[in-house]
Write a structure and sequence with these properties.
Elements: E1 5-7, E2 17-26, E3 29-38, E4 41-48, H1 51-57, E5 64-74, E6 83-85, E7 91-93, E8 96-98, E9 120-125, E10 142-150, H2 152-160, H3 165-214, H4 229-271, E11 276-279, E12 282-289, E13 297-305, E14 308-316, H5 321-339, H6 344-361, E15 367-375, E16 380-386, E17 391-394, E18 400-403, E19 418-423, E20 429-433, H7 435-438, H8 450-457, H9 464-479, E21 488-495
Helix pairs in contact: 3-4, 4-5, 5-6
Length: 511
């Protein structure tokens, strides 16, 4: 227990909460009281601020204190006190002498002391709140101040403990700090040199990679040894090289395929008959426009015997090389069956059987096919169709007859080809076409359509040349330069008004 401490009673007014510091008087004796309560537990500790406590505190050596009860003024009514030093170490407070000699001894000062060793006296308040311990109410009591005597030199000596200790400590601290900073500087310089070398090597690898790529060495790759921005750049560079290599491979492959497709297109063109055929009294004009390099449409003109001409128009589903090859096989099969004597529905039924056998081995595309056999002697045309768009007959009197034969395409399990015989008098015209004609769209996605086709045919009877030119011109105007979405095939045939030539022979060379 500190000197002067006394055990005090615990007042009932003490509130719960953290400890608080109070100032109380018992008579004229001030007490510094620390209180605290936690539920049923309470603590009240008071320290008597008297000369005994002051002498105990003064033993530290560099300062002297004195607790002065200023009866001349009160704590809250006197904002400040005037403290003066008189002769012989006397101290005056508000012009009243304070008996500090009972507590303070002579001020220790070394020989040849200067003004920094001269003692100075100041004051400060001990606490700002004075309470009555019995009631807990604020009390009006004399003011309590603490007088403090010290000198700047005493404060300094207590701080440094010796005259040269601080300088030694400062020098040692600066030396240690400089040593640490020097080591850190060397470490930082070393790290910077290593980083510069690593960055230089990474940039050099990027430069070498760029030169290799510029020389055409697309197999060159930059080794990735870093996980920073330069490493990401190397990964991006390698990705770019991979992309360029893939792109060039794809370009070469596309060029190869384009060359093969061009050869296939030329072969397909050579497989098709001429566009202008004169077969005795029968004039045939044709137009073929593939939507891709190799289309799925085909047409053929055959002369199986004197006085008969067969025109066939087919549409194989799809585009490309495989479709073109299948179209060539269909063309060969039709020609072979015609040579064997098959006509009309019988020809289509035989072709259906052949395709059904092929479908049992592997899936084949569907085919729409229309076969028209013109009998010059009887002035008729025998039309057979398997899922193909309807044919039109433009008669000499200007009427347009639509020959619609409903059926599913070849290759479909429920395909049932149908046929019909229509009169084809001299001067009349037969029009066969693929669905690419009526499905061609303009800039507003409007289809060419059957109605437009019928209106064009109803403009009047004409020779096959004129009818074909009329349809081609209308198609070009409708598409307005847009690429075709499907192949377009048009075959126009007619019997001239001249007398039948009994010497109609087989199909001659293209014209």
């Amino acid at each position: 227990r500190s000197p002067g401490a006394e055990k005090l009673f615990v007042p009932s007014w003490l509130p719960d909460g953290p400890p608080q510091r109070l100032l109380a008087f018992r008579g004229d004796v001030p007490y510094l009281v620390v209180t605290g309560r936690d539920g049923s537990r309470a603590v009240l500790l008071g320290v008597r601020l008297d000369e005994r406590l002051a002498r105990h505190l003064n033993e530290s050596g560099w300062f002297d204190v004195y607790f002065y009860v200023a009866k001349e003024g009160f704590l809250h009514s006197t904002p400040t006190f005037v403290v003066q030093q008189g002769q012989g170490g006397r101290v005056l407070v508000q012009d009243h002498a304070v008996p500090v000699e009972n507590v303070w001894g002579p001020w220790p000062a070394p020989q040849n002391a200067g003004w920094l060793d001269r003692p100075l006296v100041g004051w400060f308040r001990v606490a700002g709140k004075i309470v009555d311990l019995k009631t807990g109410q604020c009390a009006r009591a004399p003011g309590l101040i603490t007088l403090l005597r010290t000198s700047p030199a005493a404060v300094w000596r207590d701080f440094v403990r010796a005259p040269f200790a601080l300088g030694e400590k400062i020098r040692n601290a600066l030396t240690g700090t400089a040593l640490v900073l020097g080591i850190l500087y060397l470490i930082v310089v070393g790290i910077a040199v290593l980083m510069i070398l690593a960055i230089t090597r990474a940039v050099a690898r990027l430069s070498r990679g760029a030169r290799e790529i510029s020389r055409g060495n697309l197999d060159h790759r930059i080794p990735v040894k870093r996980r920073d921005q330069l490493g990401d750049l190397a990964l991006s560079f390698n990705g770019m090289a991979d992309a360029v290599q893939r792109m060039l491979t794809e370009v070469r492959e596309k060029e190869r395929l384009a060359h093969e497709l061009e050869l296939a297109r030329q072969i397909q063109e050579n497989l098709l008959p001429g566009r202008r055929l004169s077969l005795g009294e029968v004039e045939v004009r044709a137009s073929f426009r593939p939507a891709a390099e190799v289309g799925g449409d085909y047409f053929d003109v055959l002369v199986p015997e004197k006085g008969r001409v067969i025109a066939a128009v087919g549409d194989v589903a799809g585009h490309g090389l495989a479709t073109g090859l299948f179209m060539a096989s269909v063309k060969s099969a039709v020609a072979a069956f015609v040579g064997e004597g098959y006509r009309g529905v019988e020809l289509l039924e035989r072709l259906k059987e052949l395709m059904d056998e092929g479908n049992r081995q592997h899936r084949q595309p569907m085919v729409t096919l229309a076969v028209a056999e013109i009998d010059v002697n009887h002035r008729t045309v025998r039309l057979a169709s398997a899922g193909h768009p309807p044919a039109f007959v433009l008669h000499r009197d200007g009427s347009v007859e639509e020959v619609l034969l409903g059926s599913m395409p070849l290759g479909f399990p429920r395909c049932r080809p149908r046929e019909s015989v229509v009169e084809l008098e001299p001067g009349a015209t037969l029009v066969l076409y693929s669905d690419g004609l009526v499905e061609a769209v303009d800039g507003r996605d409007e289809a060419f359509g059957y109605e437009r086709l019928r209106r064009l045919l109803e403009e009047g009877p004409a020779a096959p040349d004129t009818v074909l030119e009329r349809l081609e011109r209308a198609l070009e105007g409708h598409a307005a330069g847009r690429p075709l979405a499907d192949d377009v095939t048009i075959v126009v045939a007619g019997i001239s008004k001249d007398v039948v030539d009994p010497n109609i022979g087989s199909l001659g060379p293209k014209s």
